[in-house]
Amino acid sequence: MQHENQQVDEALAHYLAALEAGAPEPLDALAPDPAIRSQIEFALAEGLPAPVFAPSAAEQTAAAAVAARVQT
Length: 72
Hints:
mainly alpha
């Protein structure tokens, strides 16, 4: 049996992927266990951490070029 945190993480990831794809699924179907469902509902209500933006090397070079032009 999966650890409860892993179940929450997987169900939340599945829910968000389905929501992003435009085909949301009810939480009852994804997490029939009320304890897991309440943890997912809490995470959704509190908000999720924003993804960290890591620019690629090409993006960093382009940003440096723009910054250099702005300074001159």
